[in-house]
Amino acid sequence: MLKAKKTIKWVSLTLGGLVLVILAIGVTANIVSPPSGYSSQTTSLVRGIKIVSEVHQDKMPTVTLTGATITDAPLQEVQSMAESGNREAQMILGALYWQGIGVSINGINFVPTDLSRSLHWYQKAAQQGTPEAHYYIGRAFEMGEGVSEDKRVARSWYEKGARLNHAPSISKIGYFINKGIGGLKANPVESANWFRRAAEMGDAIAQANYGVMLYHGIGVHQNLEQAVVWIRRSAEQGEAHGQFLLGNAYEHGEGVEKSMEQAISWYTEAENSGSAQAEKRLAELNDQTLASAN
Fold this sequence. Notes:
- By secondary structure, the chain is mostly helical.
- 54% of the residues lie in helices and 10% in strands.
- The chain contains 12 helices and 7 strands.
- The protein has helices spanning 72-83, 87-99, 115-127, 131-143, 151-163, 167-179, 188-200, 204-216, 224-236, 240-252, 260-272, 276-293; strands at 2-3, 10-15, 18-23, 30-31, 42-46, 49-53, 61-64.
- A 3-stranded antiparallel β-sheet has the order 3-2-7, with helices on one face.
- Helix 9 packs across helix 10 (240-252).
- The model is unreliable at 1-57 and 62-71 (pLDDT under 50).
């Protein structure tokens, strides 16, 4: 694992599903592998900073401390590298300043929330062709977080990300076309094409949305079996809406053999993933069970 003369402390930053693991040390360490539990697609080591990239989801950055300490020296080093043009350091600062980590407690140095500074660093990273940076800036403009809401500007950033083959950005273009927002005309056929492109690249949200279009025959020929294929792929990635949709398919036996056991199982998974729809449906099913027992 890790060998160094000083204590190794890890900080896990989750950018949606993009996980950055910062190795916060002041000495050079021999890095053999990241901590257990991180299935990385790409890794890089830049002067004591370990970055592990995983599947990205449709969420803005969140920062979670995993029992780790951020020391002054590594933070200053990240800042210095970012100012020198290191795009990975720029992305780290973008994530830290987006959410912030509060105030200093028990010797742990925290970073204040500063959306303007966050977007500044994302823009710096975007200028160097970092796809995720384009996406996060687009999300900020779409939601009006840190900037004035502007769907057209959001669309332009998503388009830049899409040109770099960034699946979540491609999925967002499909969504904008589906809704007819951001200056785009609603076009279900074109929307389905964008969703399918992102779905084939593994984007869980696009897989769920493409499955819905197949399920209802919107922009594509209706195909319940294929709809369930794509919805299942989304669900198996932990996407709450995909899990809910798969539960619904099992409950009604559409595109798959009916199974209330499977339906409840997937509704439960969806509820655990944060689906309000699944929570409501489970409550309804529970009430029905209690009523039939009386």
